């Protein structure tokens, strides 16, 4: 029997975004720079037939924590969006001058919708999980009305 382990990060992480593609729609609130306190649920499963407390779930938990730390208090932006590039540069200038640091930006290949962010997190975790552990479910809740869930079983 395989073992299932859940990581529930209902303690949210904050991020900012602005959806360039949505700007065309004008009235869509996501066209303006805004933030979200998102939460994440991750479920992984051991592929081993042997029940064991020695399964490397600790590593899976570290990977989930790692991706949350990467996204927390970041600007999540589409890499080809010229306005986001300008905004990121402005942030770097501002933080550089004041604190000698750069801003936290996570660049994505597509506009940062809930689905795109959820898939980014899923890929990040999948690519780093130790052998014998697979990602089975991920639920990204950007707002109570903007939820994306992937079931990978
Ligand atoms: Zn939004």
Can you put this structure into words, describing what you see?
Its cofactor is Zn(2+). Pfam families: PTPS. Keywords: Lyase, Metal-binding, Zinc. The protein has four helices and six strands. The mean pLDDT is 85. A six-stranded mixed sheet has the order 4-3-1-2-5-6. It is globular, with a radius of gyration of 17 Å. It starts with a strand and ends with a strand. The chain has 153 residues and is an alpha/beta fold. The protein has a single domain (4-151), classed as Tetrahydropterin Synthase, Chain A (2-Layer Sandwich). It has helices at 20-23, 57-71, 82-99, 114-126, and strands at residues 4-17, 34-46, 74-78, 105-108, 133-143, 146-151. Helices cover 33% and strands 35% of the residues. The site of zinc ion (ZN) has 4 residues, from strand 2.
Give the SSE layout:
Elements: E1 4-17, H1 20-23, E2 34-46, H2 57-71, E3 74-78, H3 82-99, E4 105-108, H4 114-126, E5 133-143, E6 146-151
Parallel strand pairs: 1-3, 3-4
Antiparallel strand pairs: 1-2, 2-5, 5-6
Zinc ion is lined by residues 17, 30, 34, 36.
What are the main properties of this structure?
153 residues, alpha/beta, Tetrahydropterin Synthase, Chain A, six-stranded mixed beta sheet, 4 helices, 33% helix, binds zinc ion, 6-carboxy-5,6,7,8-tetrahydropterin synthase
